[in-house]
Write a structure and sequence with these properties.
The protein is an alpha+beta fold. It folds into 2 domains: 11-43 and 295-328, no CATH class; 47-286, Bacterial polysaccharide co-polymerase-like (2-Layer Sandwich), CATH 3.30.1890. It has helices at 11-20, 22-43, 60-71, 84-92, 95-103, 122-125, 133-147, 168-225, 233-268, 290-321, 323-337, and strands at residues 47-55, 106-109, 117-120, 148-153, 158-165, 274-278, 285-286. The protein is elongated. Mean pLDDT is 78; it is low at 341-346.
Amino acid sequence: MTAEPARELSLIEMAVALLRHGRVLILTPFIVVGIAITLLVIRGSRFSADSAFRPQVSETSANRFAGLAAQLGVTVPGTSIGDPVKFYAEVAKSRDVLREVALTEYRFASAAGGEDSVRGNLLALFRIRGKTQEDAMRRVLNRLAKQVDVTTNRDAGLVRVRVVTPWSELSVLINRRILGLIDTANLVRRQSQAGAERRFIETRLTAAQAELESAERDQERFLAQNRQYQSSPQLLLEFNRLQRRVDLRQQVYATLAQGYEQARIDEVRDTPQLTIIDRPEGSARPVGSLVADAAMWLLIGGVLGVMLALAQEFLARQRAQDPAGYEELRELAARQLTPSRRVKRS
């Protein structure tokens, strides 16, 4: 006898099924909430600290350098960092920055207003161990990458940094440390670029000075040999040609000298290039709420309870309509869930 195919449940039959499996429907949400609250309590409280900054990337020096090099017939690639907002967002979550953050020694109060202090780097504070030092560092970097969130607002030109840790003061310290490392990276980049510009101009300045002196000597020899050149059209034309050469060399030398002095200033300039819009100090606050989390997990547990109740009803109907198929399904499920006891032959 061929088993009849399972019929879809109507809304009334679904309601009856849910009432029939009311124990599953009621217990499942509370079990899920209990497990979730237990895990949240074990994990402990978390606090976030937020900051926002606007990069003031001035490409005047880079554009001046590229323009000067182009005038001298030299192409200089890579003088721009592209989108500064995206650039600094990537810097904030780069491995080098996170590594420095992880290795920094922090000291802070264990509780707000408390006298007991906690001290150590993130490897010690997060109690992260590894088979090797590099393995431990990889683990702390992976955890730190999840706790540091960087977002951008390109319309406003802002980069926002959020840090979440089990301690409110530590979140503030890490956030402040990230801002400091970004500013340092920006300073090193600008000084390195200015140093390359200075070395390039210095070489060209020496050559330009030699060319200017050579042009002036040629003009001096011409004047010594032709004191009355004004009366000769040919000599006057030659003098004007030499004068234009001297003027051009003087202009190139003056431009290079000005660029050289500016590059020397930029190379030692240490003024900050980040405008801090929101500082991390005073921004620490708890992440999430136990009541809100419990309500969310209660809702998830309710959905899961409905699904389990309907699944039980479906299996019960399948068993009544097709006993053979149901038994085959049970055997297959038991075979997949039971670990194999076969002994491997050597």
